[in-house]
Amino acid sequence: MHGPALSGWLLMALCGATGAYCLLRTRTGTERERRSARAEALMGFGMAAMAVPAALYTLPEWMWVVYAVVFGAAALHAVVHARDGGHHLHHLVGSLAMVYMALAMAPGAAHATGGGHSGHGAGTAGSAGGVPVLTGALLAYYGLYVLRSAGRLIPAPAGVSVGGGGGVMTGPGPGERTDLALACRMAMGTAMFTMLLTL
Question: What phi, psi does 12 have (nearest 5°)?
């Protein structure tokens, strides 16, 4: 990843902590919720590994292929479950974005695209990796996703009617942590946005 080492450390810590929380979420909930939590844990740990500062550890050249294969398989899994709705379409976009970043960061990718990027922060300072239009589209998607998630985290005034049924919005029941899960998704969306910016 391009950028200062501090941002790499912070992204690595944020994504690792988020992945760990998502892994804990795999122990409770419905099968659909556990499947979503597993996909989010994979994304969190994958992003943490991708954000490791080059000063700490330079990833071997073959590791970018492993990233592409793992997240390509995750994208196929998301396609299979996309008909279930929910968060699977977002997981599909995230997995494909990880494949894209892995291919853009791979050594030799810069020569194929005409940029000076040579992977994992080793490129020259101003070099661009990947396809600018695709990177821009992913930045727009994740920017809007983060803003939407942040808006959903803002509590509604007490007694606000929701939907057409005249019901009153209530908080999560005992043991439910939907707000924390949403905050983790927002954190991963922010991290993905940041990683795309440094691409």
Answer: -60, -45
Report pLDDT digits (tens) over 12-51: 999 999 999 999 989 988 888 888 889 899 999 999 988 8
User: Residue 169: CB partners within 8 Å, gap ≥ 6?
Assistant: 156, 160, 161, 162
Tokens 């991963």 locate to: 188
Distance in angstroms (rounded) separating the CA atoms of residues 120 and 58: 7
What's the CA gap between 47 and 94, in Å, rounded? 10
Q: What is the pLDDT of residues 21-32, one digit of tens each?
A: 999 989 988 888
CB burial readout 86-108, b (16+ within 10 A) else e? ebbebbbbbbbbbbbbbbbbbbe
CB 158 within 8 A of CB 171: no
Ramachandran angles phi, psi of 53, nearest 5°: -60, 140
Q: What one-letter code names the amino acid at 128? A: A
Taking alpha carbons only, the member of 25, 74, 8, 77 closest to residue 184 is 25
At 48, give phi and psi (nearest 5°).
Answer: -65, -45
Q: Is the pTM of this model over 0.85?
A: no
Query: In this structure, what token pair is assigned to residue 148?
Result: 């939407």
Give the 3-state secondary structure of residue 30.
Answer: coil
